[in-house]
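Sequence, please.
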C-alpha cells in the first residue's frame, strides 16, 4: 500500500470498526477477529494489524476499567500475559515480508477453528493447581498465533472460560488480556519496522466508530439474549475464515 491511503480504504476501515466495536460491545470480545478478517480482504495482515492497534487498546481499557477485580486478575494472570508477549514477539515474523500470504491463510484457519469450538460449545475446567504451568503455555501458544495473524482469541478465550470466573471477571480478564496482547503486537511490529505508519491516522479515526459500535453493542447486550447473537456471530466468523483461507491457499 502506498503512503497515500485512498478514500475507499478509509471508508472500509470505518465500516469495519463499527461492526467490530458492536460485536465487542455485545459479547465482550471479537474486535480483533472481526476487524482483522474484514481488513485482510483489502490489505495485507501487517497493515491490518497496524490499523487495529489503537482502537483495540482504547476499547479494552474501557472494558478493563469497568470490571471489579483488576488487581486480583493481574496477579492471577501475569504468567499468561508474559507468555503471550513472548509468543507474539516470536510469531510476528510470520506476519511480515514474504510470509504475509501464509499469515493470511493462517488467520482464516484460526477464525474457522475458533468459530467451530464456539459453535460446538466445548467447555473445559482447569483446576487452580494447574494454572502456574498451564498459563504460560497457553499464553505462548496464543502469542504465536496472535503474532502471525493478529487475532488474540485462541486458545486464550477457551482457557479463560475454563477458570470459572464470574461474568464480570471474565469480561475484565478479556479486556486485560487483549490490551496486553495488542501492546505487545504493536511493539513487535515497530521493532521489526513492519508497522504501517501511513495508516496511523486512519487507525486513530477508526477509534470513533469502534467506540460508537461498542456503545451500541453494550446497549443491545442488555436487551437481546447474548447466546443468540453469539451463535450468529460465530457462524459469520466461520464463513469469513473460510473465505480468507480459500483466497490465500499455500
Amino acid at each position: 500500500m502506498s503512503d497515500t491511503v485512498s478514500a475507499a480504504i478509509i471508508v472500509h476501515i470505518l465500516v469495519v470498526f463499527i461492526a467490530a466495536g458492536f460485536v465487542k460491545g455485545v459479547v465482550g470480545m471479537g474486535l480483533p477477529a472481526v476487524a482483522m478478517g474484514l481488513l485482510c480482504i483489502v490489505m495485507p495482515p501487517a497493515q491490518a494489524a497496524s490499523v487495529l492497534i489503537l482502537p483495540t487498546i482504547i476499547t479494552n481499557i474501557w472494558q478493563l476499567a469497568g470490571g471489579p477485580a483488576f488487581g486480583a486478575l493481574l496477579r492471577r494472570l501475569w504468567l499468561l500475559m508474559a507468555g503471550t508477549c513472548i509468543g507474539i514477539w516470536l510469531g510476528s515474523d510470520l506476519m511480515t515480508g514474504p510470509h504475509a500470504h501464509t499469515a493470511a491463510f493462517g488467520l482464516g484457519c484460526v477464525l474457522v477453528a475458533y468459530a467451530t469450538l464456539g459453535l460446538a460449545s466445548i467447555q473445559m475446567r482447569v483446576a487452580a493447581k494447574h494454572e502456574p504451568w498451564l498459563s504460560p503455555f497457553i499464553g505462548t501458544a496464543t502469542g504465536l498465533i496472535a503474532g502471525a495473524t493478529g487475532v488474540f482469541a485462541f486458545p486464550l478465550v477457551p482457557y479463560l472460560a475454563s477458570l470459572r470466573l464470574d461474568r464480570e471477571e471474565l469480561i475484565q480478564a478479556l479486556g486485560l488480556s487483549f490490551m496486553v496482547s495488542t501492546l505487545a503486537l504493536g511493539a513487535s511490529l515497530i521493532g521489526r519496522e513492519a508497522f504501517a505508519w501511513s495508516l496511523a491516522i486512519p487507525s486513530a479515526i477508526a477509534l470513533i466508530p469502534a467506540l460508537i459500535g461498542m456503545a451500541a453493542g453494550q446497549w443491545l447486550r442488555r436487551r437481546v439474549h447474548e447466546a443468540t447473537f453469539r451463535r450468529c456471530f460465530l457462524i459469520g466468523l466461520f464463513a469469513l475464515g473460510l473465505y480468507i483461507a480459500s483466497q490465500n491457499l499455500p
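The mean pLDDT is 84.
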